[in-house]
Every structure is written in C-alpha cells, then in structure tokens.
Design brief:
It is a single chain. By secondary structure, the protein is an alpha/beta fold. It has 16 helices and 19 strands. Strands 1, 2, 3, 4, 5, 16, 17, 18 and 19 form a nine-stranded mixed sheet that branches. The mean pLDDT is about 95. It binds N-(aminocarbonyl)-beta-alanine and zinc ion (2 copies). The site of N-(aminocarbonyl)-beta-alanine (URP) has 8 residues, from loops.
Length: about 475
C-alpha cells in the first residue's frame, strides 16, 4: 500500500516547508521535492493545505466503568471518531479497582482495546498499594511498554490515591524510569464540600462546580508537585483547568523541576455558566472533573499554552449519555463525571488557537501531537512528518469549515459540548498507518486495525536524577556518649 501526498506544506513542531510526502507499508518513506508516485500508488493533491502529524490525544477513557455505569464510547467508535477529527492515536487509562491486581485490569483493558481502529497505548492508574502493586509496576514497565502511571487525587471512597499511595508509587516509578501523572483535586475537600452543598439544598448540576473550586485543584497540584520534587521524579498534571494549578506548575518549572501540564480543549473554550442552564440535561451533560471554569481561568490557560508552561492538549474523552447522567437527577454527586471531545479537539484548537494568532501552525502541531509523543517517549515514531515515522497524518484545509453538532458527529454520545460552533480549519484527509481513513467527510476504518504502542521507560536518563532528600541530607551530628 503506497500513498503520495503531493503539493502541500509540511508542518512539523520545528518548522513548516513545502514538500511532498510518500508513504509505504505504514511508514513515511520520503519527504521531499517533486516525489514520484509509483504505479498504483494513491495520490492526494494537498495544494493549499498543510500536511501535519496526526493528533495524539494523551487522555481518553473509552468504555470506562465509572460511577456505577460504563462510558458509552467503546474503543472502536472512539478511535473512529478520533480519526474523523484528525486524531490518529490515543493514550487511554487502565484503572484497577482498589484491591484489583494491576495485571488483571491491564489484561482486561488490552482485550477491550483490540477493536480499536487507530493506534493506542495505556497509562496505568495506581489506586491502592501493596507489594503486588510494586511488583506489577515493574512487570508493566519491563514487559508491556507502560512508562506512565496515573494517580487520582480525587474520587474518595473509589479510586482516590492518598499521600501514602502517592509516595510509594512515585518512588517506585522513579526506580523504574516511569513518569507519574496526577488528576489534581483534593478528594477530601471535594467530599466535604459536596456534603455541605447538598445539605444546603443544592441538588442540581450547579452544585458540581461549587464543590470543586479552583483552590481544591491548586492545592492538589501543588502537593503532588512538591512530593515529586522531594522524591526527584518527573510529574505530568492532567487536565489543568485553573489559574491556581497553572501557577503551581509555572512556579515549579521556573525552579527547574521537570513538571508538565496538560489542558483540555473544553477547558479552553467553555465556561462555567453551563452549570446554571435551566435545562437539567444540558447542565448535567457538562458535569466533568475538574469542572469548566470562569473566563479568567480560560485566559490563564491560553497564556500557559502560549508560554509553553502547558505542553499538551487532550480531551479526557469520557462519554455518558443523558439516561446515564440521569442517575444523578436528585443528587449532583451521582451524575457520572465526563464529557466528549476526541472528534473536535484538533479543529477547536486550530480555530481558537491558530486563527486568533495565539498559536502558529508549528505550535499547533507541538501541542496537539509532538509534545505528547516526546513526553511519553514515542517520538519520532509518532509526532513528526519525517522519513521513518509512522504514516499517521492529517491533510489540513485551513479554509475548510464545519459546524459541530451531536446530530452529525461520529462520537457515541447524544450531546456535544461544542454544539453549534463553526470551526474554520479541518482535516480534509486523515491517514492512519499509511491508509486514507477519512476523506470527503467519509470514514473508511477497520475494526481492530489499531495497534498497541509500546512506550519504553526513561530509565537511562533517570540514573542522573537524585532524590532531593538524599542529596541534601545533612550528616548526623557526632556527639560524645553521655557518661554511664
Ligand atoms: O470527569 C472526568 N474527568 N471523568 C473521567 C475521569 C477523570 O477524572 O479523568
Ligand atoms: Zn481526571
Ligand atoms: Zn480522565
């Protein structure tokens, strides 16, 4: 199978240049001027368009069992929707129940993901601790290509990791050369605030953001960052949604700490007024954690993305349809947390980022693909238009437009948080493993075509990192023995 993309402008994270791209056997074989197509090759005319690395969404939850139900989007429909919107790889999450062996959960998720039609990989959540978790983290990194472990600092009574779990897991991750990631919200405070707000008679979705104010996220982000600092392990903060968490990340980076920040497309463009909407279903459809914030926070997040303090964009794609959301009709605490977005992230980011001058096309590539590939150690297999890289590409029409709607999207959910938004800048084609899987608004995908992507650890580099406590520990004071 060979494919020539002719006459476009290649955009990589470092530069943009005029070149043809020739793909063979799932890889990019050549990038250069006036490439010839062999007989039988498919040819795309990319005149006036950009050729960019396919998007990597480093934060999705396909068919996640969560809050008493299961996310409606499975690995096939979810990766297909991603391809329709120009995202060619996801990193999803294995989330063991407390006390569930890590390897058992890992095997379950691997099986569910076999139907994916785009490439995928897994972060593994550490939701509890004992010797078997310590051992299985080793097995996952050494034998299964897992280099990142996730910690939910919220969801008390379910998957929350307390400080003891964080410390044990961070130390083990450091030993293995893996990166730690956190959902930063103080679960204890959320629990208490939820109770107080509910007892005050606020039972609707408007109670959700009230119980998860920015301070709750800022505290947890700062705590995780400081724990990581003391233990000398790199940290990646997922779905940074507010100024307080951003400031914690910025501070740490200015101090030379290896901390990364992710922001969701939704948090950049949707504000918290949605929770006061008179229609319960509309408000509940936006219940996700951390919640959507006020404009002040959105502006801060854009600045963080522009400044490079936040490196990646994601969606936290986690779909629940209205009948599922209705589990919390009388109690906002029972509304399954999650919103969709995998199909729309790329266009929303281009429209609100590139078209407004906030991001250059190369910066767009950086925050939608390359940085994720580098942070999670799959670069340059992914995240680059270069000879030898996987042929996961988008042909991007900067003049093309689309009006986002649940009526036309490919996501398996009855609601779209970007409903009615007309975006300028869309993928005319998506290429996955060298095959055109999206063109002329049509998907041509194959169940099971997606591959599991191994992500090697950073073990060699970590040798150079030292535990701060070790480095700075003073010598014990020598004292004369007291007289007997
Ligand atoms: O509300 C959300 N974000 N649901 C998915 C689980 C998580 O916290 O990432
Ligand atoms: Zn989360
Ligand atoms: Zn998530």
């Amino acid at each position: 199978m060979s494919l020539l993309i002719r006459g476009g402008t290649v955009v990589n994270a470092d530069r943009a240049f005029r070149a043809d791209v020739y793909c063979e056997n799932g890889k990019i074989a050549a990038v250069g001027d006036n490439l010839e197509a062999p007989a039988g090759a498919e040819v795309i005319d990319a005149g006036g368009q950009y050729v960019m690395p396919g998007g990597i969404d480093p934060h999705t939850h396909m068919q996640l069992p969560f809050m008493g139900t299961v996310a409606s989007e499975d690995f096939f429909t979810g990766t297909a929707a991603g391809l329709a919107g120009g995202t060619t790889m996801i990193i999803d999450f294995v989330i063991p129940n407390p006390q569930q062996p890590l390897m058992e959960a890992y095997r379950a998720w691997r099986e569910w993901a076999e139907k994916s039609c785009a490439d995928y990989s897994f972060h593994v959540a550490i939701t509890w601790w004992d010797d078997s978790v310590h051992r299985d983290m080793g097995t996952l990194t050494r034998e299964h290509g897992v280099n990142s472990f996730k910690h939910f600092m919220a969801y008390k009574g379910a998957i929350m990791a307390d400080d003891e779990v964080l410390v044990n897991s961070f130390l083990r991750a450091r030993e293995l050369g893996a990166i730690c990631t956190v959902h930063a919200e103080n679960g204890e405070l959320v629990f208490r605030l939820q109770q107080e707000i509910f007892e005050r008679g606020i039972t609707g979705p408007e109670g959700h953001p009230l119980s998860r104010p920015p301070e709750v996220e800022g505290e947890a982000a700062n705590r995780a960052i400081r724990i990581a600092e003391v233990l000398g392990v790199p940290l990646y903060v997922v779905h940074t949604s507010c100024r307080q968490a951003l400031e914690a990340i910025t501070r740490a980076r200015l101090e030379g700490q290896r901390v990364f920040g992710e922001v969701l497309a939704g948090h950049l463009v949707i504000d918290d007024s949605v929770y006061r909407h008179p229609d319960w279903s509309f408000a509940a459809a936006h219940v996700m954690s951390p919640p959507f914030r006020s404009k002040e926070h959105q502006d801060a997040l854009w600045r963080g993305l522009q400044a490079g303090t936040l490196q990646t964009t994601a969606t936290d794609h986690c779909c629940f349809c209205d009948p599922q959301k209705r589990m919390g009709i009388d109690d906002f605490r029972k509304i399954p947390n999650g919103t969709a977005g995998i199909e729309d992230r790329m266009s929303v980011l281009w429209h609100h980022g590139v078209n407004t001058g906030r991001l250059t096309p190369s910066e767009f590539v950086r925050v939608t693909s390359t940085n994720a590939a580098q942070i999670f150690n799959i670069y340059p297999r992914k995240g680059a238009v270069a000879a030898g890289s996987d042929a996961d590409l988008v042909v991007w029409d900067p003049q093309g437009t689309r009006t986002i709607s649940a009526k036309t999207h490919h996501q398996n959910i009855d609601f779209n948080i970007f409903e009615g938004m007309t975006v300028k800048g869309i993928n005319s084609h998506t290429v996955s493993q060298g095959k055109v899987v999206w063109k002329d608004g049509q998907l041509d995908v194959e169940k099971g075509a997606g591959r599991y992507v191994d992500r090697p650890t950073f073990a060699p580099f970590y040798e150079a990192l030292k535990i701060k406590a070790e480095v700075e520990a003073p010598e014990p004071v020598e004292r004369a023995k007291a007289a007997e």
